[in-house]
Amino acid sequence: MRIDVRVRNALEVIGEDAHVAEELGADGILNAEIEEDPFPGLALAAARTDRVGLGPAVAVAFARTPMTVAYPAYHLQRFSKGRFILGLGSQIRAHVERRYGMPWGHPAARMKEFVSALRAIWHTWDTGESLDFRGEFYQHTLMAPMMSPTRNPYGPPKVFLAGVGPRMLQVAGEVADGLFPHAFTTERYLREVVVPAVRAGQEAAGRPADAVEIAVSTLIATDDAEFEASRAQIAFYASTLAYRPVLELHGWGALQDELHPLSKQGRWDEMTALVPDEVVRTMSVVGSTAEVAKGLRSRFDGLADRLNFYIPGDVPPPTRYADLIAELHA
């Protein structure tokens, strides 16, 4: 199980964070699209590292087009000498339509087509063949030689998709190289829903059983403050209707019925208090550093190909996780 470390996305610090994470023994570094575009910082991270994989977990696909994603991903794959991992997520309708001003509809089918379009564009750049991708949501039929990037000799970047619901999980199995299950998950949901859906997608597409890497992200808490931070984060996620399947599997659907109306009213403090300890402990790995390392292995060895962990709030420097990385590699 490879260990990925989240790094701060600010241009002023991401290069140093990536370098330190690599020195600490991380196998990969991840940033995220929250308040900053993820792609510029990854160029700085690639310049300061030699070994680790690197990529966004995740960039918002539907805020862009396949062509506007294909360019930075291709450049970063070439610049990092084949270490780039393109993580893509759909986001939810409100953000896509109201924050990004982009169309929404049929997210699973759109994502499948998005990845197929990316691969068609990269194939054109690699081979010089004409670009002729015609789908339901995207059409890419023009690529002049002067607009084609310098050829990337490392092959196309790996594409990982974020997914929660069964249909998006199946799409990951059909077309992706990896899956970032949402951090709002549990070991049981991974075993009973996520992995079977991905495997079903692989089988439907005629792909081998190991075609898709599972890159798990999970909350951790090593003290009371971090435990409460996890509770607050879980309350936020649990109020989102798209994540209800995780709650339903555990019989916690009524929790969302309480949280969602409060979220619409911005009553965040009241929401946090409604999340029981049982839910926090099921969705987070709790204890001392050694206990957290043991818990991570117990839950995810044999289930996850890659693992990253985090404490809600501002992303800390990688040194915050130095002892945990050492424990996991021991």
Automatic annotation (TrEMBL):
Matching InterPro entries: F420-G6PD/mer, Lucif-like_OxRdtase_MSMEG_2256, Luciferase-like_dom, Luciferase-like_sf
CDD domains from the UniProt entry: Tetrahydromethanopterin_reductase
Assigned keywords, A-Z: Oxidoreductase
Domain Luciferase-like positions: 15-304
Record EC number: 1.-.-.-
EC category name: oxidoreductase
Gene3D superfamilies: Luciferase-like domain
Keyword Oxidoreductase found: yes
UniProt GO MF annotations: oxidoreductase activity, acting on paired donors, with incorporation or reduction of molecular oxygen
Protein name: TIGR03617 family F420-dependent LLM class oxidoreductase
Organism: Amycolatopsis pithecellobii
Taxonomic classification: Bacteria, Bacillati, Actinomycetota, Actinomycetes, Pseudonocardiales
